[in-house]
TrEMBL record:
It holds the Pfam family AA_permease_2. This is Amino acid permease. The keyword RNA-binding does not apply. Its main location: membrane.
């Protein structure tokens, strides 16, 4: 058995040995977050929405005339009330789902397969639109301070998107600590705008040219509902802390619930303060500037503080877009593990980064930004529908949970989550109906198509699993095992106990020499399950298990083979590969074996052989 100093071996008297990769720099409990660090890492998406949420209310109300814009304040009061309901509800989600209570996880546990697919599709739409909306709002904020950029909103958005995509493809670490300073700066700047603005009797300066907004509607119930639904875009990101509970330090639920409460108080205060300024100063949409930029000029003037604040707002929005580069690839990997997306989305690089997921975020966001010309208000109708669909599913799932378990005070919990579900459902439906022709129809088409895609992929993997025999013990491999004293060592990477594993072991035994199977598991529980299955099968071949929390396979196998090669024995690596019958199905198989063979050939002088397992499909 090769000696591997980088691995920590656990003693075992059985032929089945255990190995575990050492933790890398930055991993372990120190990497987990305090309440404030979690607030910085997970809430910038929600906090930065004050840059476009109040403006969306004012833009809708302006269609009924200048006086109607005064309705921004009462509508914001209702939105803040809904925010408090959501915050309290998600504090319950955190307590009930400490493993991460996103709407996909809640729906999967409480509402069944169809609703979990709907939640996943809505979340994908939400994540992609978060990137597009944040970058579009950031470009508008930057153009407000530097008018020369106004004709190039799309180009500015794409430049920011390209930078974020490249950075995330490379991989970033300690993101919570990196985000602390920008988050604090953003909150200080917005709170400063509110406090100074309310302290002054009138705005210090006015920016932007007057803009004539044609009066096309009356201030009726439908217009108010449309303004409310558009303004609810300020509530995006409220669920992010509940999704990321495992990122917090122990006691995780206590810290996460505290961070959720602080988020609600900060966001609610900023929304109310900005709405008060819009109402008191009769702020209207103006040409070439955002409403937030007008409020900044009214509080700070047009000196250096005006430019610094707009730059900070742009930076905050760009970093808010970056949260999707962390969240969506993880969601795609969860869907892939549930056999609802191609398994390649579970692959991580050594940094570690889900690069396929990051690439998908970048490409889809670029398509959206080009389609709408980098204009924020064209994205909001699509944005809010996905957000509130996820909110509604999560709240309904919690209602079912309380109804089923009936713990102490369950009636109050049902009422709280039920009210949240009702309000968010109404907001989604109103926005869908009122904004259908303005872009909401896209979500109506995309979400069912995504659900159909999940279903078809899951059915394919189910059929492949039956062909591979993933739920039954395969026959014993043919041939006899070699002895440890022989000069030849045949190493076979395996992932599960299947018919393909049996064929690979039979081929390895036919080569002679000692045969050893190597498997990489991502946690100790997975390693224990694999060892148990192997012992039950008892193929007569030793199994080496490597626990790698980075969820990568190629690097640990490379290190194992390198250590074996250093012993002077002749090493053969036999890599089994799934080969689908039709070319179109290849994307559903991660082709990890081909990549492993390429890496081994590039770094080591060992014999690498590929053993195809041809499927009937």
């Amino acid at each position: 058995m090769p000696s591997l100093p980088r691995w920590k071996r656990r003693g075992s008297r059985t032929p089945i040995a255990r190995r575990r990769l050492q933790l890398r720099h930055g991993e372990g409990d120190r990497q987990h977050l305090t309440s404030l660090e979690g607030l910085a890492a997970l809430s910038l998406d929600a906090l930065s929405s004050v840059a476009y949420g109040p403006e969306e209310i004012a833009l809708v109300l302006a269609g009924a005339g200048a006086l109607a814009v005064g309705g921004t304040l009462p509508i914001t009061l209702v939105i803040v009330g809904l925010l408090m309901v959501l915050v309290l509800s998600y504090r319950q989600v955190i307590a009930a789902h400490p493993q991460g209570g996103g709407s996909y996880g809640v729906a999967k546990e409480n509402l069944g397969e169809r609703m979990s697919m709907l939640a996943a599709a809505a979340l994908i739409v939400d994540y992609v639109l978060t990137v597009a909306v944040s970058l579009a709002a950031g470009a508008a904020s930057l153009a407000s301070a530097f008018p020369v950029l106004a004709p190039y909103l799309t180009e500015t958005c794409l430049a920011g998107l390209a930078l974020l995509t490249v950075v995330n493809l490379y991989g970033i670490s300690d993101s919570a600590r990196v985000l602390m300073a920008p988050t604090v700066l953003f909150v200080v700047c917005i709170v400063g705008v509110v406090i100074l603005g309310l302290a002054r009797s009138r705005p210090v300066a006015v920016v932007g040219a007057p803009m004539t907004v044609p009066v096309t509607e009356t201030l009726g119930a439908l217009l108010i509902l449309k303004a409310f639904s558009s303004g609810c875009s300020s509530l995006t990101g409220v669920e992010a802390i509940a999704n990321g509970v495992p990122m917090f330090r122990e006691p995780r639920t206590v810290r996460a619930r505290r961070a959720e409460l602080i988020l609600g108080l900060l966001l609610g205060s900023m929304l109310l303060g900005l709405a008060l300024l819009i109402h008191r100063d009769h702020v209207l949409p103006r040409e070439g500037v955002t409403i937030l930029s007008q409020l900044v000029a009214g509080s700070y003037g047009t000196g250096w503080a005006y430019y610094v604040t707009n730059i900070v707002v742009t930076l905050g929005l760009a970093l808010a877009a970056n949260t999707s580069f962390g969240g969506l690839p993880v969601l795609l990997s969860l869907l892939a593990r549930d056999d609802r997306l191609p398994h390649l989305f579970t692959l991580r690089t050594e940094r570690p980064v889900y690069r396929y997921g990051v690439a998908v975020v970048g490409v889809l966001a670029a398509v959206l930004l080009i389609a709408v010309g980098g204009l924020t208000h064209k994205l909001i109708p699509m944005f809010a529908i996905g957000v509130f669909t996820g909110f509604t599913i999560s709240q309904v799932g919690m209602v079912k949970r309380w109804w089923s378990l009936r713990p102490p005070r369950w009636i109050g919990n049902v009422m709280l989550n039920g009210i949240g579900a009702l309000l968010t459902c109404v907001a989604a439906l109103v926005l869908l109906v009122s904004k259908f022709r303005e872009g909401a129809w896209v979500v109506v088409i995309v979400v069912p198509l995504l659900m159909l895609l999940f279903s078809r992929i899951q059915r394919y993997y189910t059929e492949i699993g039956a062909e591979l025999g993933t739920h039954r013990i395969p026959a014993k491999p043919t041939g006899s095992a070699g002895t440890a004293g022989r000069e030849k060592l045949v190493i076979i990477p395996v992932g599960a106990v299947t018919a393909m594993t049996e064929r690979a072991l039979s081929a390895g035994l036919a080569l002679g020499g000692e045969v050893v199977a190597v498997t990489v598991c991502f946690d100790s529980a997975g390693a224990d399950r694999m060892r148990e299955q192997w012992a039950r099968w008892d193929p007569g071949v030793r199994l080496e298990t490597i626990v790698n929390p980075h969820r990568t396979v190629v690097h640990p196998v490379l290190e194992y083979v390198r250590a074996a090669d250093a012993t002077g024995r002749r090493v053969i690596v036999l890599i089994p590969l799934i080969e689908p019958r039709h070319f179109r199905y290849r994307i559903l198989h991660n082709q990890r074996g081909l990549f492993m063979a390429l890496v081994l050939r590039e770094h080591l002088d060992v014999v690498v052989a590929l053993l195809p397992f041809r499927l009937r499909m």
